[in-house]
Amino acid sequence: MTLLSDLRKNLKKEFSGLKPIRVALLGDTATQFLNQALRGAGYEKGFDLQIFEADFNQIEQQIFDENSELYNHNPQLIILFHSSHKLLAKYNKSKPQDYGNLASLRMDQVSNLCSIIRSRTAAKIIYYNYTEIDDNVFGNYANSIQQSFLFQLRKLNYELMEYAAANADFYLVDLSSIQNQIGKASVFQPSVYINTDMVLSIDVLPLLAFKTLDLIASMNGKFNKCLIIDLDNTMWGGIIGDDGLESIQLGSLGIGKAFTELQYWFKKLKNRGIILAICSKNTESVAKEPFEKHPDMVLKLDDIALFVANWENKADNIIQIQKILNIGFDSMVFLDDNPFERNIVRQNIPGLTVPELPEDPAEYLEYLYSLGLFETVAFSSEDQNRTKQYQIEAERAGKKKNFINENEYLESLDMVSKIEPFNKFNTPRVAQLSQRSNQFNLRTMRYTETDIELLAANPNTFTFSFTLEDQYGDNGLICIIILEKEDEQTLFINTWLMSCRVLKRGMEHFVLNTIADFAGKIGYTRLKGEYLPTQKNEMVKNHYHDLGFEAASEYWILDVNNYIKKETFIKSK
């Protein structure tokens, strides 16, 4: 367990080279140690959190005053912490007839504060929800009567979830679940609160800080996209090659129940858009047999994007999986019950997450719950099709081997693309693609659904979304372009990002043909591009050069009038 003292040590380390993020921390209770925990956890996640910490209990003053230190800091993120204990004090001072309105009044306050923030800054808002306090005035009846403080707290947390669902720039960190996980005694210490007005214990701060950083990392495109799973004693109990189909442990009785419930979790992750892959030392036909024949298997072969079972080194097999998926190792998680295999993979693939599974399979699921491995800030209908898309990609890769000529292969795919501006139907996917794309992302821009709606309505921007479909299936929306009017002759390419699943199919040529043609038709003579390097987007370092743009200081310029269309085998739909 990480201690606050461990995180404090990070504050003495070199932060240069980490991604800077301006953060404002506002609380109605003492937050100085939370500030330190956030900074230290940020270091471990690769971020330099440049935090402005407001004075104690100055949330409203900082937000209402347009000249406050909050706005002078120009934060990209604002963390708001209204504590349950301060809310209880407000409840205690209320008139009995007002007890039942506490949640609605606080929700109105939160909504008003957020509206003011939105009117003065583009900062995203992170809000800590409310830990439960049962003042035991009503006993168990507190769950049935609106006038109870416990009822109001639970209602408030529900209304916060509803508000977050309706506002794409408002994110919740589930402090209440942390208390449920580790117990109230580990979160709140009465003597500390009475003497220092600090609501959160020192012990819980690292956990809350990492929970917050998981969310911040996800906002900035750092999250896990793929789960690679071993089979024997990980997917089921026993060894399929030795024990046989009938003797592996699965089902609703004994230790088999642990593996079955684990598979249900894998299935839910797959339905949410996490790519499932198998990496097992096994004969492939034997390894696939439970998926095909065992009545208690929850997962089927259709749930698995890539199935690799052989007697090769697992690290080498994972490298092959990564090449096919074309995502970073730091976006992948590997589960294996065998400590030897885990260590081999860790030593050979830095950056890959390899959890140290407990010895007892009954503990697997609760342990994995506690790690927060699959944070996300968006979900769209296309996520549910991701496994099929990667299965199709593996099929494409197999067919490609049959072609000697690259152009013949591309022509054989019969590719078509639908081009649309941003609209209410594609907004969730456009926002999600901006948050997920790291490698093919020229300026690494991130957008919420609210941002996308504003861009679509801005008369000074032109937006494009591209889908890609071929004879094997539909890849869905895979590329977005945002052009900004810079002057009467120039359109600036504010955003050009693309899913790496469609690399080397000529999509970048098709996109450039599209936007160059558009620019010429509306009277613009220049396209201006910019590459902003990150640790992950070096693959597009020469993107504009390779497309024929000319270097101009830190930018790249394309003369639209003299542009010759690139050859591509993609047709407009």
Question: Can you give a write-up of this model?
Answer:
This protein is α/β, with parallel strands linked by helices and 573 residues long. It contains 23 helices and 18 strands. Strands 11-12-13-14-15-17-16 form a seven-stranded mixed sheet, sandwiched between helices. Strands 2-1-3-4-5 form a five-stranded parallel sheet, sandwiched between helices. Strand 7 (275-281), helix 14 (284-293) and strand 8 form a beta-alpha-beta unit. The termini are far apart. The model has no long low-confidence stretch (mean pLDDT 92).
Strand content: 15-25%
Major sheet summary line: 7 strands, mixed
Low-confidence stretches: none
In quaternary terms, these chains amount to single chain
Number of helices: 23
Indicate the overall shape: globular
User: What is the CA-atom radius of gyration, in angstroms?
Assistant: 26 Å
- Number of extended strands: 18
Helix content: 40-55%
Q: Kindly state the mean pLDDT as a whole number?
A: 92
Q: From the helix content, strand content and strand pairing, which structural class follows? A: alpha/beta
Report how far apart the termini are: 54 Å
